Amino acid sequence: MSEHKIITCQLTSKPDPLAVNERGKIYLQIQETGAEKKRVQSLLLTVPCGKGADAVFQSTSGVWIRTEDSERWECGQDRMREEKSVDTPAFLFIDSMEANGDPMESPAVFQITGDVPKEQGSALISIIVTFADGTKESSSAHITKGDGELYLENFLAARKVEPEVPTAVFRKNEPIYFSWNSNGVFFKLYASGVSKPLAETTDTTFVLEGGAREDTTYILQATKPSAFSDCLYRTLTVHITDPSLESLEIREQLKTDKAALTVFGEPSAVSLQKVGEYTDWTLVPETDGYLVGKLAFQHGVTGNGTLTVKECSEAQAQCYEVSDMAFQGKIVQSGNGSVLDLSKKASLCVPVRKGIIVMVSLLISHISQANGYDLSVCFIPLGKGRAVEI
Q: How far, in Å, CA of 77 to CA of 63, rounded?
């Protein structure tokens, strides 16, 4: 492409390369980059269609072009030409809605969709730009077709009554509308810590009719056996404004501001000797790396605890403990009783894999002083990157 072009036309496919024998998307972005300013009257795209390796889509009848900026541009296809063979190209046009052309004060984006033929290869799309003064510029770009990289993006939640408005805040048991974008062929939706999927579907939407009773992290798994990366995960946390609490532990003071506090059942004081199990941390690494953690009871504190690492792989229906990666500390018996002492610092270093869910659990089953321990866990990626504390 010439350095002196007034308009640049950039074509990108989703996925890249275009997945053969599937529905594919191509995005066209045009913007004015040259020193000379001109109004754009129209664009004409010639998209090869047919069964060969040099065809972008299978047939002209299945090709569509659209823009979300309909007040600025009009898109369509020349369907007056009768298809004389399977190798007839699709002629796509884009016209400015202004009589004297678009001033191109901001970039314009268009989406082209169609069924990709099963033959792998590279196809050329040509573009002719016509300016308001009648002059023209030509451009072109190659589109590659292959197995297609699996993608999973825009994992969102919304209210069932307003599915087009994303939100992360719901009332207890309010239906949750999940949606996502992906070229995966099968999806599983999990609630963090629950081995059975909430949904197993081929659709890219799902309504959880019963909603959630408390803040919950949801994990979405997408699979596509034919892709280079055959399994991807995304997480989403929703917050409940009026949660149901099955247990409540108060270590200092409980205050209410104007609202009433109602207790069902028998309230009882919580002994600091029995702290119980803490909520899991969940991480889906975007690259290979290590999970590094340190657990230490503070000076003079006695008790016992377990810091455990688990992972959920695409081949396993439920989370399982990774062999030799659980930490139970240095435990010694003291006195005539069965008091266990975890006064010494210990650490773990666990290799984790890209896209595999990692869960870290801390269980303090006995402690002589509330908050009498220090815990830090962080993810360190391989290669370039920065550690992320979880």
A: 8
Low-confidence residues of the chain: pLDDT under 50: 1-2, 82, 265-279, 314-345, 384-390
228 and 290, same domain (yes or no): no
Question: Which residue, among 219, 217, 210, 218, has the nearest Cα to 172 in the 3D structure?
Answer: 210
φ, ψ of residue 62 to 5 degrees: the values are -100, 10
Contact call for residues 274 and 363 (beta carbons, < 8 A): no
E-strand stretches of 69-120: 73-77, 90-96, 108-115
Assess whether the previous peptide bond of 163 is cis (omega < 30° from 0): no
* Measured CA distances, 27 to 13, 41, 65, 149, 356 (Å): 6, 20, 10, 16, 31
Q: Across the strands, what pairs with 333?
A: 340
Residue linked to tokens 């659980």: 326
For the stretch 333-384, pLDDT in tens is: 333 333 334 434 456 677 777 777 777 766 666 677 766 777 767 777 665 4
Report CA-CA distances (Å) from 245 to 125, 140, 155, 238. Answer: 59, 61, 27, 16
DSSP per residue over 275-336, as a string?
-EEPPPEEE--SS-EEEEEEEEEPTT--EEEEEEEEEE-TT-SS-EEPTT--B----EEETT
Considering only CA atoms, which of 211, 147, 151 is closest in space to residue 180?
151
pLDDT at 183: 81
pLDDT at 71: 92
Rounded to whole angstroms, the Cα distance separating 285 from 260 reads 43
Q: Are residues 174 and 228 in the same domain?
A: yes
User: Which range of residues forms the domain containing residue 203?
Assistant: 152-240
Residue 227 included in any domain: yes
Q: Are 124 and 140 in contact (CB under 8 A)?
A: yes
Peptide bond into 285 cis (omega under 30): no
pTM: 0.48
